[in-house]
Every structure is written in structure tokens, then in C-alpha cells.
Amino acid sequence: MASTPYAVRVGMIASLTRMSFTPPPPDLRKLQAAWEEWERGEQAPGKVLANLKTAGLGVVLAQLVESGWSPAA
Fold first, then answer.
1. pTM for this structure?
2. Angstrom distance (rounded) from CA 51 to CA 19
């Protein structure tokens, strides 16, 4: 059987399916930096959203809601 650049060993796939992924904790500095880039007009909206998601905005918002936090008036 000829090998192609796309040939993948079955054992490799099995080991990949057993791997678990634990996302890193939210990074507030990265969240703030992404927001500030948006405010300065340095990043496109899609890139800003991707950076906010990668930095953990969803986790931060969920924790704030769970804790009952509300912004100061």
C-alpha cells in the first residue's frame, strides 16, 4: 500500500480520541486588551470576538451571573 501525505495511522487516531482538553482559566488582561483594541479600531469585529472568546469571556460572564453581580449604577 502506497503512503500518501494524508495517510494517518489508526493508532494515532485512537490516541487522539483519548486526549482530553481542559481550557485555560480566563485571562482578564487579555480580555481587557482585546476590548481596548476594539475601542481604538485596531481590530475587526470578528477578530475581537475570537480574542474575547479565547481569553475566556464566556466563563467570566457565567461566573458573574452565578454570583449575582450587577454593575454599579
1. 0.67
2. 24
Residue in 32, 34, 31, 26 with CA at minimum distance from that of residue 59:
26
φ, ψ for residue 6 (rounded to 5)? Answer: -100, 0
CB 31 within 8 A of CB 56: yes
Helix (H, G, I), strand (E, B) or coil at 61: helix
16-69 pLDDT tens trace: 666 677 888 999 999 999 999 999 999 999 999 999 999 999 999 999 999 999
Q: Beta-carbon neighbour count of residue 15 at 10 Å?
A: 10
Contact between 55 and 30 under an 8 Å Cβ cutoff? The reply is: yes
Helix, strand, coil tally for the chain in percent (to 5): 60, 0, 40
